[in-house]
């Protein structure tokens, strides 16, 4: 018998999805109230599609059909619909069947599935999205297989099933193709799902930034105001498409807005042509009617400039949620609200749909900002510093980013041939797990540089309705670096790194040559290199008498040096008649004629015009004769641009970030490592233990809202860890001296005596642990001393434990963050991790390369490798332990916490002295479920 809750309308099955063409649709369960929608939908389906669905002519649905297709128990019979504008565009259903193919109920685990897609929406990927969601529903209802019978001529539907990536069987009988799909997700099904997600979300962004026509809704009748400003910026930037001004206060009939000369309309209904993008510049209270008008007119995307949404309080949050729901119901995506706008400098588009008064120069930087003010500052700063050096490909200031987010633009920039470097200012990361996945994939192709605001505030800005995350900023930084993201601290560093990465090749290593006409500035640069982990060569001082030709010769020598990976040129004003342009020409010529491509940066103090000359577009003149080039330029080298910085620290930091990224890309991205398989792991046995333990504590499997985590006993913890080949050193309770002696004899001397009360654990500063107790007398004396020092045995909870070999005390932890997922942490026990925060973090699952890098990334790592003549410890065994813990929490999401402390890493082997495991029903894994847009 099904419980009442299983028959209730399953709200959590509702989802918004991005389709193949970039539009959106809503997927939801079908209800009895949908009868008329179903009839209307069916009337718009072609006879051919009806024939493919029912294997016979079926011109209309009977009342019985309508009742059957709209009444479901949401357990054995389920129907889902994809809707746009509130109307059905596709349906899918399953019916649970038994071994003979007849209707059945649990425990039967197979269901028959059938689709119907409106002809006008075929080819948009609707059926594929519905299949993903229906499969997730089926798994939730303990259905493990789908069966479908398809006519051979229905090749589109056969392709939907065969391309899904699930394990499948195919047979042909009685003129019908029978397909069986195993619904357990596979690596291929997950890869297919993510590839479709990437293409769809990238396409949805492309529709926004490359429109064929733009309407500015809310264009003022008089100069001034946001709408009129955006209209002026669109025209001034040279937008290549059609532009319309819309304002309900305009006069009736066709007219043109002067002096701009663009068509002016009272509403979109007066525009006979397609409008791709609408800039909504009306007050918040007028936005809903504008959105409805845009949806009815077929607009593809909106940029909402108005404020007064989630940043203004609870009422604004509700208004923002309704805005997103309304737009998505029409298949539209939104940038904003409270947005600054977007820019695309591509020659075929030239879109400046923003409040920026001028279109930036075209270039290779993609820029995303969650703040309008920071976006303005970045645009103006890059224009001032980088005119001629680098330019912008695309820019978006997403405001409250209620819909389109940085994740969407990462999907777009991943394949964008016009973007070489991605710069992002983020104040919140709504889906950290997805962000790190996308960032890692993009960073394997092009640099991704991130500065995060609101790092220590403990909450996202008020306008950002995103899930909260408990992980500290240091952990976020580690996870970003694991994904290959260049994490910087300030907007200035963001621009500094972007200028270097967009204009220079990546360094092959950390070796840096320093040359210039100031010994002092060169020494500052040398110190900065050491501070940032680079390996500088001794500076080459050209003296203050150096001429541009001397700089050129020295730079050529440095670039030819096989022991050099990058060059920093330092310059101060010199004695003589040479101009800044002469020095720039000499440096650019040296770079252009060098045999090896290496990054070059310039640090200069008070040399007006040098940065501009180094970024100039013209080719540098040659100082010596050369052979005539094939293009007739008389041997003139190609145009070369060199970034200049006003401080050594800024140039070196940008170069160091480039070197670290280049190393990650050569090593980790190229060979990411593998998650090892261990033959002694008993995954099935661990799963059975977990089910029993959760049931014993009153927890039910996978509820929508589960109980708080339960902490396992020491015995249960040791048993579960043993399933994964992790042994905990035996410890026996010692509630009195006699028990301590018996425990010691059972374990064998020498032993350790220590308290396990929560307020005393891991408190080495109290001197509460006695080691190497070789006999009864020593043990009893230690028992008395600790009782006098720490309190009564019932307060201290003494245990006697076998002695472990000497080594380095470490701590290994795994915890589940609701947004980021499982995070594995490692550090040295005691002060290094607790006081100094010297802990490294990685997302689970951890590869062998991740584990090796993790233990080497902490500042106190030298203690593991023989610091000051000490014996190196067994780091290979430590890496294996990290990977086994990672496997445990990855295989069993019910393990929501694992603490192993202390873990003694000896010269041979590791020894776990204490462990705690916490279990809870598994949280939802949105990254493994069907693709959908974030819930608003």
List its salient traits.
alpha/beta, eight-stranded mixed beta sheet, 28 helices
State the secondary-structure class: alpha/beta
Mean pLDDT: 89
Helical fraction: 25-40%
Radius of gyration from the alpha-carbon trace, in angstroms: 33 Å
Give the overall silhouette: flat
What share of residues are in beta strands? 15-25%
Distance between the termini: 35 Å
- Tally of helical segments: 28
Got a strand count? Answer: 39
Biggest sheet layout: 8 strands, mixed
Q: Which strand order do you get reading across the main beta sheet?
A: 1-2-3-4-5-6-8-7
What is the fold's blueprint, element by element?
Elements: H1 4-7, E1 15-18, E2 24-29, H2 35-43, H3 47-54, H4 63-70, E3 77-84, E4 87-97, E5 110-117, H5 126-140, E6 145-150, H6 155-162, E7 167-173, E8 176-182, H7 187-209, E9 213-217, H8 226-236, E10 242-246, E11 255-257, E12 262-265, E13 277-280, H9 287-297, E14 301-304, H10 314-329, E15 333-335, E16 341-344, E17 351-354, E18 362-369, H11 372-386, E19 392-397, H12 406-415, E20 421-426, H13 432-443, E21 448-452, H14 473-482, E22 486-488, H15 491-503, E23 511-516, H16 519-531, E24 535-536, E25 540-541, H17 548-560, E26 566-571, H18 580-593, E27 600-604, H19 610-615, E28 644-645, H20 648-669, H21 683-696, E29 710-711, H22 714-722, E30 731-733, H23 737-747, E31 751-755, E32 770-773, H24 776-790, H25 793-796, E33 798-802, E34 808-817, E35 821-828, H26 831-834, E36 839-843, H27 848-857, H28 875-891, E37 895-905, E38 910-912, E39 915-919
Parallel strand pairs: 5-6, 9-10, 9-13, 10-12, 13-14, 14-15, 18-19, 18-20, 20-21, 21-22, 23-24, 23-25, 23-26, 26-27, 27-28
Antiparallel strand pairs: 1-2, 2-3, 3-4, 4-5, 6-8, 7-8, 11-12, 16-17, 16-19, 29-39, 30-33, 31-32, 31-33, 34-35, 34-37, 35-36, 37-38, 37-39
């Amino acid at each position: 018998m099904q419980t009442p809750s299983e028959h209730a309308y399953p709200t959590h099955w509702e989802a918004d999805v991005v389709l193949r063409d970039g539009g959106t649709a809503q997927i939801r369960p079908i209800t009895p109230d949908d009868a008329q929608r179903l009839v209307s939908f069916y009337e718009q389906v072609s006879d051919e599609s009806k024939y493919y669905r029912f294997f016979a002519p079926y011109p209309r649905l009977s009342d019985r059909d309508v009742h059957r297709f709209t009444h479901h128990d949401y357990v054995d019979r389920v129907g889902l619909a994809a809707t746009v504008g509130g109307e059905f565009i596709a349906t899918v259903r399953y019916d649970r069947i038994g071994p003979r193919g007849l209707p059945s109920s649990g425990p039967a685990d197979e269901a028959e599935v059938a689709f119907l897609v409106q002809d006008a929406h075929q080819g948009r990927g609707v059926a594929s999205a519905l299949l993903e969601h229906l499969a997730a529903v089926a798994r939730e209802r303990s259905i493990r297989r789908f069966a479908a019978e398809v006519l051979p001529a229905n090749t589109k539907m056969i392709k939907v099933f065969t391309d899904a990536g699930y394990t499948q069987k195919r047979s042909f009988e009685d003129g019908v193709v029978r397909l069986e799909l195993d619904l357990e997700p596979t690596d291929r099904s997950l890869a297919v799902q993510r590839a479709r997600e990437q293409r769809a979300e990238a396409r949805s962004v492309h529709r926004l930034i490359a429109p064929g026509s733009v309407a500015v809704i809310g264009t003022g009748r008089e100069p001034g105001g946001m709408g009129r400003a955006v209209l002026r910026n669109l025209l001034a930037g040279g937008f290549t498409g059609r532009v319309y001004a819309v304002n309900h206060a305009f006069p009736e009939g066709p007219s043109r807005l002067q002096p701009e000369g663009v068509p002016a309309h009272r509403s979109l209904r007066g525009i006979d042509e397609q409008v791709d993008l609408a800039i909504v510049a009306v007050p918040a209270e007028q936005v809903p009617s504008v959105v409805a008008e845009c949806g009815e007119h077929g607009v593809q995307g909106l940029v909402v400039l108005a404020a007064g949404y989630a940043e203004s309080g609870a009422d604004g949050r509700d208004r923002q949620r309704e805005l997103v729901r309304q737009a998505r119901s029409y298949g539209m995506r939104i940038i904003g609200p409270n947005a600054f706008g977007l820019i695309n400098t591509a020659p075929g588009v030239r879109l400046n749909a923003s409040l920026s008064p001028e279109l930036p120069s075209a270039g290779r930087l993609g820029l995303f900002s969650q703040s309008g003010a920071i976006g303005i500052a970045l645009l103006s700063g890059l224009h001032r510093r980088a005119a001629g050096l680098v330019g912008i490909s695309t820019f978006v200031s997403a405001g409250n980013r209620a819909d389109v987010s940085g994740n969407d633009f990462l999907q777009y920039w991943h394949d964008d041939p016009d973007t070489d470097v991605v710069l992002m200012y983020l104040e919140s990361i709504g889906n950290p797990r997805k962000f790190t996945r996308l960032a890692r994939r993009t960073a394997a192709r092009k640099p991704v540089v991130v500065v995060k605001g609101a790092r220590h505030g403990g909450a996202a800005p008020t306008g950002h309705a995103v899930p909260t995350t408990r992980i500290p900023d240091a952990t976020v930084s580690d996870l970003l670096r694991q994904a290959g993201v260049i994490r910087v601290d300030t907007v200035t560093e963001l621009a500094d790194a972007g200028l270097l990465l967009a204009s220079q090749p990546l360094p092959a290593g950390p070796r840096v040559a320093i040359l210039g006409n100031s010994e002092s500035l060169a020494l500052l640069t040398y110190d900065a290199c050491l501070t940032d982990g680079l390996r500088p060569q001794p500076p080459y001082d050209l003296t203050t008498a150096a001429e541009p030709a001397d700089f050129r010769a020295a730079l050529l020598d440095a670039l030819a040096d096989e022991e050099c990976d990058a060059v920093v040129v330092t310059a101060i004003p010199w004695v003589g008649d040479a101009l800044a342009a002469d020095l720039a020409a000499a440096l650019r010529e040296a770079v252009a004629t060098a045999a090896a491509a290496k990054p070059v940066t310039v640090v200069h103090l008070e040399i007006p015009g040098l940065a501009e000359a180094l970024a100039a577009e013209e080719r540098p003149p040659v100082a010596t004769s050369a052979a005539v080039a094939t293009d007739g330029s008389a041997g003139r080298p190609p145009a070369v641009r060199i970034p200049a910085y006003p401080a050594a620290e800024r140039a070196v930091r940008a170069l160091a970030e480039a070197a670290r990224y280049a190393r990650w890309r050569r090593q980790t991205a190229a060979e990411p490592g593998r998650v090892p398989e261990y033959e002694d792991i008993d995954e099935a046995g661990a799963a059975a233990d977990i089910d029993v333990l959760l049931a014993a504590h009153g927890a039910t499997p996978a509820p929508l809202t589960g109980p708080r985590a339960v902490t396992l006993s020491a015995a249960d913890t040791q048993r579960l860890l043993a399933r994964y080949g992790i042994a905990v050193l035996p410890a026996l309770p010692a509630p009195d001296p006699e028990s301590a002696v018996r425990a010691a004899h059972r374990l064998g001397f020498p032993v350790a005596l220590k308290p396990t009360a929560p307020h005393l654990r891991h408190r080495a500063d109290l001197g509460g642990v006695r080691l190497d107790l070789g006999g009864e007398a020593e043990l009893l004396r230690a028992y008395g001393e600790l009782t006098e020092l720490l309190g009564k045995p019932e307060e201290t909870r003494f245990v006697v434990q076998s002695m472990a070999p000497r080594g380095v005390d470490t701590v290994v932890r795994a915890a589940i963050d609701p947004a980021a997922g499982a995070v594995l942490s490692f550090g040295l026990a005691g002060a290094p991790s607790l006081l100094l925060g010297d802990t490294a973090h990685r997302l689970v699952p951890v590869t062998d390369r991740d584990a090796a890098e993790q233990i080497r990334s902490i500042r106190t790592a030298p203690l593991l490798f023989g610091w000051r003549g000490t014996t190196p410890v067994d780091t290979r065994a430590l890496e294996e332990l990290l990977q086994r813990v990672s496997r445990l929490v990855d295989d069993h999401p019910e393990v929501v916490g694992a603490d192993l402390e202390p873990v003694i890493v000896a010269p041979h082997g590791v020894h776990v002295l204490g462990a705690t495991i916490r279990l809870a029903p598994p949280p939802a894994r949105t990254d493994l479920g069907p693709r959908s847009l974030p819930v608003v």
